[in-house]
Amino acid sequence: MKLFGDELHQDFGSWPLAYIPYGGPDFGTIAAVAEAVGDGDDTAFHAAWLAAGDRLAAEARDALVREHRVSARESFLQASVAYCASYHPLYGKPVDPRLIEAFRKQISAFDEGLALFDPPILPVRIPFEGTSLPAYLVPATDRGVEIRPLVILTNGYDATVTDLYFASAVAASRRGYHCLIFDGPGQGEMLYEHGVPLRPDWETVVRAVVDFAVSLPTVDPTRIALSGWSLGGHLALRAATDEPRLAACIADPGLWSVASAARDFANRLGAGLAPEASLATLDADVVDRMFAIIQVDRGLRWKIVQRGFWANGASDLRDYLHRLEDFTLEGRIQNIECPVLLTQAENDPLAGDTQTVFDALRGPKRIMRFTAAEGAGDHCEMQNRSLMNRRVLDWLDSVMAARGA
User: Strand runs (DSSP E) across 210-350, as ranges?
Assistant: First the structure.
C-alpha cells in the first residue's frame, strides 16, 4: 500500500503498519502523517512524525492526570513508535541533533508507557565489556512471576528496542514467553549516544546477554531461544555458533554473509572477484565507480553511506567493504547444535542465502517460507508480521515442549 510519495519515506513510514496489531499507532495516524508530509523532503517527514509523537505523548500525559492509566500507557507506546519513525532519513555522521532529540523522546515515551503495566516493565542494563547495554525484560502476559522459557530478541542495522518490542516481543509474551530485548553495539543507544559500532562477533555480545538472562529468577535456563530479524538473522546465527546454552535459534531471514551482495555489485562492474576473494583487493577505479553509483541512488546512498558507514564505523567505501567481510558464517556454522528455524520471504533480497545456510546446518533445521500472495513476501514479512509471528511461535512452542519433556 502506497502512502508516502517518496520511496525512502514509504519504506520508513510503512514500518509502523506492522505494529498495529501489537499496540502501535493506528492506520489513521500513519495515513495522517503521510498526508502531512505530502511531497515534502526529509525535514518534512521528520517534522510530521515528530508532531504525531508529541500529540500522542500529550494525550498520554493528559490521560495520566485523569488517572486513565491504560489510555496513558497506550498513547505513550504509540508516541514512541512515531518518534522512532521520524529520524531514519536523518541517519549518518556527523549525527544530526534532531535524531538525538527524537531518540530521547522515543525512549522516554517508551519507558513511561512500559512503567504503566502492572507490574511495571522497567529498563535494565546488561554488563558488557566495561559498559552496559540497554535492555528490557518483557514478562509473559499474566505469568510474569512464573519460571518460563525466554526469547532473546536481537536487531540488525537500524532498528531499536522499540521495534523489537512491537515486532516480536508483544506476540511472544502473549504466547507465554518472557522476552529480553536489547540494543547491542551499532544499534540504538549504543550507536546514537555512544558511537559504538557494529561488530561481527555477535557470540560475544549474546554471551553477555545470556549470562544476564540466566541470573533472572523467572527464566528457565534450559529453554532460552535467540531470534534475530533483518541483519539480526545473520547475527543470531553467528551467536549460535558459540553459545551452547541456546535451546533454539530463529533467523529472519537466514543470511550467510553480509559481503556477498557487495561482491556481486562489484562483479557487475567488471571486478571479476572470485567468491573467496577479498573486497580489499578491489581496484581503485572499481571502488570509485561503485561509489559514484551509490551517490546518485537515494536508496543506496542511505543504506551504504548514511547507515552503513555510520553503523560500521567506516571512514569510506573501501573501509566499509573491508569491514563487511568479517560478517560471515564461513568456518563456523557447523558448530550450531540447537534447532534452527530460517525464514524466507519471497521478495526479501536478504533471504537469498537461506538455502545455503540450511544446507550447511548439521542439526535440526527448518525453512519457513512466506509469499507475496499471503501479503508476507517482503523484507521480514513486515506487511503481515502477525502471520510470521504465529507460525514462528508455533514452531518454537514445539521445540520448547520437547525440550521441557
Answer: 219-229, 248-252, 340-345
Closest CA to 85 of 51, 111, 50: 50
Angstrom distance (rounded) from CA 361 to CA 338: 10
Q: Which domains does the chain have, with CATH numbers?
A: 7-114 (1.20.1440), 123-258+327-404 (3.40.50.1820), 260-324 (no CATH)
Pairing of β 131-138 and β 340-345 = unpaired
Helix%, strand%, coil% for the chain, nearest 5: 55, 15, 30
Backbone angles phi, psi at 378, to 5 degrees: -95, 180
C-alpha grid cell, residue 148: 518460563
Separation of alpha carbons 160 and 153, rounded Å = 11
Strands (DSSP E) contained in 62-166 are 123-128, 131-138, 148-154
pLDDT of residue 278: 82
Question: Residue 405 above 70 pLDDT?
Answer: no
| 317's grid cell | 567505501
Q: With a cut of 90, say whether residue 265 has pLDDT above it.
A: no
What span, in angstroms and rounded, lies between the C-alpha atoms of 281 and 318? Answer: 9
Which residues in 129-273 belong to E strands, given as ranges? 131-138, 148-154, 178-182, 219-229, 248-252
Q: Please determine, for residue 401, whether its predicted confidence score (pLDDT) is greater than 70.
A: yes
pLDDT at residue 281, as a whole number: 81
Count how many Cα atoms sit within 13 Å of the Cα of residue 248 in the half-sphere of its side chain. Answer: 27
What does each C-alpha distance from 183 to 37, 171, 187 come to in angstroms? 29, 19, 5
With cell 567505501, the residue in question is 317
H/E segment holding residue 339: none
Separation CA 323–CA 318 (nearest Å): 9
With contact defined as beta carbons under 8 Å apart, do 235 and 256 qualify?
Answer: no
**C-alpha to C-alpha distances, 274 to 151, 249, 268, 277, nearest whole angstrom:** 39, 31, 12, 5
**Orientation angle between helical segments 69-86 and 97-114, nearest 10 degrees:** 160
Q: What percent of the chain has pLDDT over 90?
A: 88
Backbone dihedral region of 345: left (phi > 0), alpha (psi from -120 to 50 degrees) or beta? beta
